[in-house]
Amino acid sequence: MKNKIKLLAFLVPIMFISCERNNAEPDLFPQGEGMFILNEGNFMAGNGTVSFYSLETGEIYNELFKTRNSRPLGDVPTFIATDGTIGYIIVNYSGTLEAVDMLTMESLGTVTGLSSPRQMAISGRRAYVTSIASEELTVIDLDLLEVTGYIDIGCTSEAIVISDGVLFVSNWVAGDRIVVVDLETEDIIGSVTAGTEPESMVLDKNGKLWVLCTGGYMQDLPKLVRINSVTYEKESEMIFGSVSDYPASLTINSTGDTLYWLHEGIRRMPVSAVSLPGEAFIEPGERLFYDLGTGPGGRVFVTDAIDYQQKGDLLIYNRRGELEDIERAGIIPGFMLFMTEW
Amino acid sequence: MFKRSSAYIIPFKVSRNALHAALLSLLIFVSPQTGAQDMFNEDTVTITAVTVTATASERQTPYTVFVIDSAIMAGHMESDLASLLMYATPLAVKRYGNHGLASVSVRGLPGSHTTVKWHGLTVNAAGNGYTDFALIPLHAASSVKITQGGYDLSDISGSIGGKVELSSEPLFQTGQYGSVAAGTGSYSDYTASAVTGSGSESVSARMSLWGEKARNDFLFINGNAPEGATEERRVNSSCVSGGAATDLAYRSGSSTVAAHLWYSNSERELPGPVTTVQQNFGERQSDRSLRSVISYSLEKEKITARVTAGGTSDVNLYYHENPEYNGDNRSSLLMLRAGIAYRLNGKAEFGINAGNEYQSARSLSYSDTERRNVFSTSLSARFNPGTRVRLLLQARQMIVTGMVIKPEFTAGAAVTLSPDGAHLLKASISRTARLPCLNDLYWVPGGNSSLRHENATGGEASYSYVSVTSSGLKNSIDLALHAKRVNDMIQWIPGVTGIWSAENVRSVNVYGLEGRLGSEMPFNELVISSYLNYGFTRSVIAASEIPNDRAVGSQLIYVPGNLLNLNLGLRWKMMRAGVTALYQDRRYTTSDNSEWLPPSFIADAKVGAVLPAGKTKIGIELDTKNIFNSSAESVRNYPMPLRTFNLRLTINFTSKNKKNEEQD
Questions:
Q1: Residue B449 forms part of a structural domain
Q2: Cis before B445 (ω within 30)
């Protein structure tokens, strides 16, 4: 009996300590400036994860969603959009959208049944989700976390950008146009033929829409196209040299004046340029760059998925293109979102 | 709760698996005896006893070859070859859920490295190099022979993993026999089969028909659901399959002509992965195949000769809810081979084989129909320099369209340690090659016509023990140590444009230990049979040309480090009972071994009776699969069912009674 009492006396405090730790939910990562990385995971394996690279500590923090919620995020997370401290993670092959508290990575709700979602844009309390399988944009009420409608755009979609009350939606796979949707009426009000397979697009500081068209696989010459976001007219196009070129992952710095993309390394170009850069800003060396992001001070973040079956690397370069740090992220590290304000 | 990653393995689950395994092991080995793989089961009218006679010579082969016991085959007759191999051999089976695509890994190499032959005809699709073992019913053959490793060079083309051979040897002087069987099981699973045959002095004929229909909407635990672990029902997973096989043989004097035909048709819905939520993309797959083989063999004095010709046509159609993703893959193969062996005297035999295989495949992802010709010739020499020593030398040279192949060889020895032949030591070394499949060469995009063949160098040493006592007690033990190095391994890897391509990028070191134990113990009218297979396999990436590859030093994905299965059978008068169990160690799912499927333990149990009625026997059997209701996956996110039941009725008929069979 004495032994049992001793055992209880030993165990009870431990139980309380455990409870206290769980309730407190200690921080999984520091909440200063840093980059969120979505690791896609192996296709059909459901092992997509979220990482955070802290500029303050210079360290990466992996598997945040799974650690916080005791379940995996899903299969092939491709995009995060934020609304204040709430993040919305699109999980492509699971067909879900996870709402998370960006401070803790705690799941706030899940929207299921989305048709191969890819990216999203937020306007007010509504989100517009693109699809690589469906010819409709899905409209989601962010308060209810429910699908409230669809917008038929007549083609599948990938990148999506909001500018001055309209949505620009790229028709990536086997497509060539940018569809313009009025946000108020949710009607199609225009379409711009950009080039074969418009994969990524960004808005610059002048309100110009830049579209990177990959040209498809050995199909057409890739193009970097600039579109007037008010008149919906193509203003210029810069053509790559060969159909075997495959540029991708167009992104822009926080001041909106410099474009970056992947093409035999990392290319950098001011938005005022009239021709494509002849040389890579950062040579790939033995790296196989997969996705690209930018941070403050001209920093460039790029991922290497290695063989796509193991944990990949996050590489951080400074504004001069010098390698500052390498961190091991998750499997197929892809989309990145830099957080400056929490 | 079923978790997968390293951080979320629940210890309770592992320990419970270990407990189940230990319990069953105790059940099996409560007897001090272990025993023979060679067992004749009187219930297996439709299964020939050929396996028994073949085993003695296979045992003398200096590398590991074994034939699956006919009684074990009989116990799995209504399932597919994948299920049989999973429970009755040390091979690792990877399966995309119940009735889903199944591949088989031999000695730590991927399923594409396992060659499947049916009467000498290659079953692997020329396009992707794989065989879907879920589409091979056991009715298609009466014998299954396994060669561990790629040592056997008598075939036209080689493998470096291993070989599964299916055959139905002619049965002469059996009289007429036949059987019909019908079964029904959980989730609207219905099976039916019929076999009829006849064997006279010079003619053997056999025909099998089979079919299965299953709704297959089984229950499983989704441990990763957003709302927490839930019991869900599988969707889009029904299947219908059917087929027929015929075997004809005519013998006259020392010559035999045989013809075989096998047709199968399968329609399967393809359930999506359960990645937090269950996916359903309306995928389905249709597979049709027609195979035929005709052979002539001669055994006359010192000469053995055989000529075989055959062909196969495979159609694989894939449908997706988005028709842009539909697939249409077709492969065909024509084969002609001849071999002759001459016994010089009682101590030496020389043989030569030559053959040609013409492969053709087309796919929506090919720019055209792609073809390849494989011609090879092989030489073999067997010596018995002493009464207890047997030596084997084999060499093969393949000549392949657009590719230079290094010569292959196998050398081995078998030494009998005891006068009664009970104890045997064997050793062999080999260098063998595996050709890239046509998808590796011609798939658009990413096919690489500059690929080299894979090659493997290695060997094995093994010990074998067999004893049969006058009381009917049979024991067998087979232990093998093996090791090999595989170079120029082909993998699909991403390129700078994001397009994947096939490359010779990695080398793999494989080594391991295999054990097979068996026993049959008669106690008056009670007969207890037990078989255990164990495999320890390390299949480690030794070198890589992929930059920054952290997978070097890691186990290949989906190769279990430890695998154990056991079959326990009881026969008492008319009653039958049996337990089968499978334990698999963790299987890594990422190349750097950072994630894995947890160890799994699945056990099945069956009870039944065989009621004799003259020349007819009526069998009834209740089979319970997954008796511990374990949540398990063979492929990540493709759950297997929880506990299921199956009831089967079998009626066997033979025109000869047991006494006549024994006299024959």
A1: yes
A2: yes
Indicate the helix (H) or strand (E) that contains B442.
Answer: helix B438-442
Asked if residue A9 is part of any domain, the answer here is no
Amino acid at B288: R
- Nearest beta carbon to residue B275 from set A44, A63, A107: A44
The CATH number given to whatever domain includes residue B476 is: 2.40.170.20
Nearest CB to A93; choose among B4, B275, B548 = B275
Using DSSP bridges, classify how beta strands B500-523 and B644-654 pair: parallel, antiparallel or unpaired.
Answer: unpaired
- Number of domains chain A is built from: 1
Angle formed at CA A18 by CA A13 and CA A19, multiple of 5 degrees: 100
Note whether B496 and B454 are within 8 A (CB). Answer: no
Question: What's the pTM value of the predicted model, to 2 decimals?
Answer: 0.87
Mean pLDDT of B157-167: 92
How much is the pLDDT for A25? 54
CATH number, domain with residue A93 = 2.130.10.10
Least Cα separation, residue A166 to chain B (angstroms): 29
Residue of B nearest to A75 (CA): B275
Residue B1 in any domain: the answer is no
In a domain, A7, yes or no: no
Interface test with A, best of B2, B491, B497 (most A CBs within 10 A): B497
Backbone angles phi, psi at B480, to 5 degrees: -140, 135
- Minimum-distance CB partner of A308 among B4, B223, B494: B494
Q: B133 in a domain, yes or no?
A: yes
Sheet holding A49-54, edge to edge: A60-61, A49-54, A34-39, A333-339
Task: Report residue A17 as tokens.
Answer: 């300590």
Strands B162-167 and B143-148: antiparallel
Q: How far apart are CA B150 and CA B334, in angstroms?
A: 22
* Closest residue in chain B to residue A311, using alpha carbons only: B592
Q: Which domain holds residue A290?
A: 14-341
Residue B113 is part of which domain span? 6-663
Q: Determine which helix (DSSP H) or strand (DSSP E) holds B194, and give its type and residue range.
A: strand B189-199
Radius of gyration of chain A (CA): 22
pLDDT of B38-65, one tens digit each? Answer: 322 333 322 222 233 335 678 889 999 9
B592 closest CA partner among B638, B535, B632, B546: B546
Contact B551 A307 (CB under 8 A): yes
Q: What is the dihedral of CA B44, B48, B49, B53, to 10 degrees?
A: -160
Q: What is the ipTM of this complex?
A: 0.84
Closest alpha carbon within chain B to A132 = B322
- List of chain A residues whose C-beta atoms are within 8 Å of the C-beta of residue B275: 44-46, 72, 74-75, 91, 93-94
Backbone torsions φ then ψ of B26, nearest 5 degrees: -65, -40
Count of structural domains, chain B = 1
Q: Residue B159's pLDDT band (boundaries 50, 70, 90)?
A: confident
Domain-embedded: residue B648? yes
